[in-house]
Amino acid sequence: MPSQRPSRLRTLPLLALLTLPLMACDKQAPTEENAPPSQVTVETVRVEPLAISSELSGRILAPRTAEVRARVAGVVLKRVYREGSDVKQGEVLFRIDPAPFQADYDSARAALAKAEANQFQARLQDQRYSELIAINAISRQDYDNARAAALQANADVAAAKAALERARLNLGYATVTAPISGRIGRALVTEGALVGQNESTPLATIQQLDPIHADLTQSTRELNALRRALRAGELQQVGQDQARAILIQDDGSAYPLPGKLLFSDISVDPSTGQITLRSEFPNPDLDLLPGSFIRVRLEQAIKQQAISVPQRAILRDSAGQPRVLLVDAEQRISERPIVLGSAQQDRWIVSEGLVAGERVVIEGLQHVRVGDQVQVTPTAKEAASVVQTTGQ
């Protein structure tokens, strides 16, 4: 018996160590059971009209571009405008040496005066001969010659007037003016350059920048799918004057001034299978420059009875099928597969699987499982709507 007592004493500490984890588990079990439910943010499903937009790429183009060219041959005396400035239609840009054109004008004016003098003489002779032929004082041949000379003099005057007008135009072309209003670029010639010699030399380029155009491209596949949905009554056509266009800038932000759709081209580019759509944007500060690559979100149709959820609310199973988590009336989590349509900005259109009034979890999905009881927090927009309704 004495020999067994020490062994019993040795087993007591071992039993104490084994019972400690069990006691800890017993203490933790009530803590886990009494843990507060996880908080999730939900959005109530609504059926409402939704604009169907397409994000298209394209380039900025100036609505009007004019190449300023020399229309007469001569030496450039002076560049009048400031490069990179805004010019008005008719404003003087360049001056070409007008001396030879002034001489041609003076010569044409003198030729006209000479032709008018000959016309006066021929007219008087025709009048006298018409009186003499009436009394048979001259031959019929002399009268016909006088009559022909008068007609020839009239033609010479008309030709001289045309030559004078041509000389006047050439003299005017020596002063090069802006054909349109807009912003003018750098000068392509300098003082002393010989321009217009056997060709119309380009001098500068003017571009109209406000408003400005954005030419976009859309595949015929997307366009045909949109047309089929319109014919089936799934979507409603947006009027061309009502189609809004939002330009997406380089940093991903939206251009502050919305644009509009002008027209869609009637032919398809055979090399790309795409069609061109032209939109217009205000450009008062000239932030949009021709040639820039841009993206535009264009509203092309409206789905009157649309259900959509935020993209962050979508989960996918191992097969890639989309699903969402719902909160029922008992504040418990359930799961449901859905069928997605197209993506519109930060939301997915849901074709099947949801009905109005259901609550979809949009935040806190990673902390809950099916069957968990949760504490629901509405979105800030829904909470503000509830507060406003209660206040009313």
UniProtKB/TrEMBL annotation:
Domain named Multidrug resistance protein MdtA-like alpha-helical hairpin: residues: 105-174
GO MF annotation terms: transmembrane transporter activity
Secretion signal span: 1-24
Record key words, sorted: Coiled coil, Signal, Transport
Superkingdom assignment: Bacteria
Domain Multidrug resistance protein MdtA-like barrel-sandwich hybrid intervals: 64-207
Primary localization: membrane
Bilayer disposition of the protein: Lipid-anchor
Protein localization: Cell inner membrane
Multidrug resistance protein MdtA-like C-terminal permuted SH3 domain mapped to chain residues: 305-366
Gene Ontology biological process terms in this record: response to antibiotic
InterPro entries: MdtA-like_b-barrel, MdtA-like_BSH, MdtA-like_C, MdtA-like_HH, RND_pump_MFP
Gene Ontology cellular component list: plasma membrane
Similarity remark: Belongs to the membrane fusion protein (MFP) (TC 8.A.1) family.
The protein, known as: Efflux RND transporter periplasmic adaptor subunit
Organism whose genome encodes this protein: Pseudomonas laurentiana
Lineage: Bacteria, Pseudomonadati, Pseudomonadota, Gammaproteobacteria, Pseudomonadales
